[in-house]
Q: What sequence folds into this?
């Protein structure tokens, strides 16, 4: 579910913004998984190995795509940069990503995208990002990090969450110091070893750090919801023959899988551990999130992210977001 770059062709990301919901799938064809789509039209969903897309893995394992008449392949990418390249090239039809990546693709590559639904983050408790320090760092609060380097990836959801958490703690923007570490495993290791004062990390690495005695300084599960992961689709794919029908049927499949997970999360622990590459140290204890039914993010969720990207210089063109359609548009 949660790292950022752009301008140099390394548009990096990893995972989101928050609350107020607009129901997905309100078209005349309905959003139920019994709405049949053209099985001959292969649809590729791109994602990183993350818990945010667990319902799609459940759908794959339990035959829900086939039941809905869908021919779906889920491609797991090793980095956000590779996932972005797949979207831009047309290799990927839909992608599980975050608002930063989506906005960056639209503004800087000219590939139009439409948000289909929130995968995690309709509430602050869904999905977790936070700032962590090593057990013996002597750092006890975010205020202690004023002027000290925090490991993070530029232009990512994690940088956005880091900035918001630090500002909430009263640390001025000038005293928020970024230590650029794009790769999450490296970032975690440098935090744990004390090579960097702290690190902005996603839920799985926060849980691993807690199991190893590291100190969680703050996370985004309290207060206003500030991060989401989202499913987006290329507009060109949707406008192709059958694309809209497939996307609509996928919403029904997602909702079906969500009901199954939320009713019996432990049934899917082994699948989550395998697909999200969870460490053995947390495999049996890692909390399985409650997943939301399809709904679009609101302007209250997306607009602060776009404003932040603009202020940081991460957008080459101004964008707006239309919460009624899920479309990003050039201002």
A:
């Amino acid at each position: 579910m949660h790292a950022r770059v752009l301008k140099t062709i390394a548009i990096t990301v990893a995972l989101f913004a928050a609350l107020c919901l607009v129901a997905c799938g309100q078209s005349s064809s309905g959003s139920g998984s019994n709405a049949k789509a053209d099985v001959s039209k292969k649809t590729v969903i791109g994602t990183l190995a993350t818990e945010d897309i667990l319902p799609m893995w459940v759908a794959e394992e339990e035959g829900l795509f086939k039941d809905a008449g869908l021919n779906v392949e889920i491609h797991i990418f090793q980095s956000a940069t590779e996932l972005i390249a797949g979207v831009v090239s047309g290799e990927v039809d839909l992608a599980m990503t975050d608002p930063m990546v989506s906005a960056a693709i639209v503004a800087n590559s000219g590939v139009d995208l439409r948000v289909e639904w929130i995968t995690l983050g309709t509430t602050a408790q869904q999905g977790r990002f936070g700032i962590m320090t090593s057990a013996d760092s002597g750092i006890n609060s975010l205020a202690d990090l004023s002027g000290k380097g925090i490991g993070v990836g530029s232009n990512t959801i994690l940088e956005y969450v880091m900035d918001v958490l630090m500002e909430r703690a009263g640390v001025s923007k000038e005293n928020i110091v970024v230590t650029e570490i794009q790769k999450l495993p490296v970032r975690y290791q440098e935090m744990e070893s004390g090579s960097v004062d702290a690190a902005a990390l996603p839920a799985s690495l926060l849980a691993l750090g807690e199991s190893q005695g590291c100190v969680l300084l703050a996370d985004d599960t309290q207060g206003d919801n500030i991060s989401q992961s989202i499913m987006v689709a290329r507009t060109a794919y949707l406008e192709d023959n059958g694309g809209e029908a497939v996307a609509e049927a996928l919403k029904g499949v997602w909702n079906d899988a969500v009901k199954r997970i939320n009713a019996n999360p432990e049934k899917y622990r082994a699948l989550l551990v395998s697909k999200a590459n969870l460490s053995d140290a947390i495999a049996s204890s890692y909390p399985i999130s409650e997943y939301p039914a399809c709904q679009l993010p609101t302007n209250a969720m997306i607009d602060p992210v776009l404003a932040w990207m603009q202020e940081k210089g991460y957008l080459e063109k101004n964008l707006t977001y239309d919460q009624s359609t899920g479309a990003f548009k050039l201002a």
